Amino acid sequence: MSEDILDNWQKKSADSYKKYKQFLNRADKNTVLKKLPVLHEEAFSKINCLDCAACCKNYSPRFKTPDLKRIAKHLKMKEGDFIEKYLVLDSEGDYVVKSKPCPFLADDNYCSIYEVRPSDCARFPYTDEDVILKRQPLTLKNSTFCPIVYFVLEKLTTSSQ
Predict the structure, then answer these.
(1) CA distances, 108 to each of 17, 49, 50, 138, 156 (Å)
(2) pLDDT for 4
(3) What value, to the nearest 5°, has the Cα angle with vertex 88 and ends 82 and 90?
(4) Coil, helix or strand for 112?
(5) Pick from 113, 107, 100: which is nearest to 50 by CA?
(6) Domain layout of the chain by residue ranges
(7) What tens digit of pLDDT does each residue of 121-139 get?
(8) Are 137 and 144 a contacting pair, CB within 8 Å?
(9) Closest among 123, 145, 160, 136 to 40, alpha carbons compared
(10) What separation, in Å, do the N-terminal and C-terminal C-alpha atoms of the chain show?
(11) What is the pLDDT averaged over residues 37-56?
């Protein structure tokens, strides 16, 4: 595979959606999990999240109870005030940011609460854990806006052929 893998990646990802879905449905979990650490590192060596930040601009992590407590403390706010100012409950009962882009995303794509960010943010894009297989709809959605997920799926699907 050419190292131009990232050229026009969004169109290629959309064109490959069905291929990714079929792969995820039939993938051998153990084989995939063994490959993920290397592919994850390779993707992050080629792609700088600060160049993109599409996740922070268009989506929200879930803010779990430990996240709420940690971030509110960091911002020197009461937990209730933090929730009222920044968050809303989504249809699944999870706290998410009220507005997009994320209110903690700065103009330079740095996160102003990076050290205490929600665990969903710290784990994103889940390309080094079994979430990539366990939550297939999420993986497929992430592949449409995150070049790292696209890169990992592309490498997984081309190496399995």
Answers:
(1) 31, 11, 8, 27, 32
(2) 81
(3) 145
(4) coil
(5) 107
(6) 3-50+124-159, 62-123
(7) 999 999 999 999 999 999 9
(8) no
(9) 123
(10) 12
(11) 96
**What's the per-residue H, E or C state across 52-103?**
CCHHHHHCCCCECHHHHHHHHHHCCCCHHHHHHHHEEECCCCCEEECCCCCC
Helix axes 147-159, 29-46, angle to 10 degrees: 130
pLDDT in tens, 95-124: 999 999 999 999 999 999 999 999 999 999
Q: Average pLDDT, stretch 44-65? A: 95
Q: How far apart are CA 153 and CA 137, in angstroms?
A: 13
Cis, bond preceding 125 (omega within 30 deg of 0): yes
CA dist., res. 20 & res. 157, Å (int) = 7
pLDDT-derived band at 28 (thresholds 50, 70, 90) equals very high
Confidence of residue 160 (pLDDT cuts 50, 70, 90): low
Separation between Cα atoms, residue 150 and residue 114, nearest integer Å: 24
Q: Which two tokens stand for residue 139?
A: 């993986």
